[in-house]
Amino acid sequence: MKVLMIAFGHPDNVLTLCKYLTRSIDFNLIFFVSGNIYEEGVLSIKLDSLNYGLNSYEDSLSILPVNIRDYLGEKFKLRFFRTYDRKLLKDKGLRNLRKIISLIKILKKENYDLIHFNGIAGFIIYFLVFLLRNKKVWTLHDYIPHYGEENKKAFKFQKFLMKFNRVL
Length: 168
Prior knowledge:
By secondary structure, this protein is α/β, with parallel strands linked by helices. Helices cover 35% and strands 24% of the residues.
């Protein structure tokens, strides 16, 4: 079985889960990042050396701290997808959309049996539209936002996506 996870955050659990799935199936991870620095959980990395769009396995692994690379092992298949920013509706010149469409073309050629979305980002809409025939799974973190972390727009978007649970 050939599986792809597209992750929009939560590196602590994503990297651990992926490490163990890699042992038993053909597993790939594409991690979405934006900006020049990514800091969340166990990851604190500079993104300056990455291209916008999908990066190679070698370039992606090279920016990880040595202790994370050692933990993941040599067979781990990770690629970073760098976006210009995380704003779906303020995509000036549709730069992010163009990069995502080129990613979708690559994913269709790589022919995955299952695509697992981990986390949430507006970009998920593009995948739902352009990858209709692929089997999909979505892991939703924080169904109800933690106190102090409420984001009304994100929560409404999350509720909207949950209505399409048969599509995912």
